[in-house]
Write a structure and sequence with these properties.
single chain; 101 residues; mainly alpha; 0% strand; elongated
Length: 101
């Protein structure tokens, strides 16, 4: 089992490194294209680089959303327990107040 866990960690690290490198490469290319004179070819390439950069950023955002959800499911939401406790006490106090009247 630990061999599998190590393999998954290694795989995740490689994917993260690849994505980070791709975003950095696209940012460098974007800066390069922005500094050049505008022509029809460079505008087309500029749009393609922006599109790919946006796609990579969306992938990164989805990754972190999924990661946060997994952590939330794994560890639970501490605020939920607190809120339910307070709500239960408030409901109890409301019921007892109504019963006393």
């Amino acid at each position: 089992m630990s061999f599998l866990a190590l393999g998954l960690k290694d795989w995740a690290r490689k994917i993260k490194h690849k994505r980070t490198g791709e975003v950095q490469r696209l940012n460098r290319k974007l800066e390069e294209l922005n500094s050049e004179d505008r022509s029809e070819g460079s505008l087309k390439e500029l749009l393609e680089v922006k599109l790919h950069l946006n796609m990579e950023m969306d992938k990164n955002e989805r990754y972190w959303e999924q990661r946060a959800r997994v952590n939330w499911l794994k560890m639970g939401d501490k605020n939920t327990t607190f809120s339910q406790t307070c709500l239960s006490e408030t409901t109890y106090q409301s019921d007892s107040w109504v019963a006393k009247s």
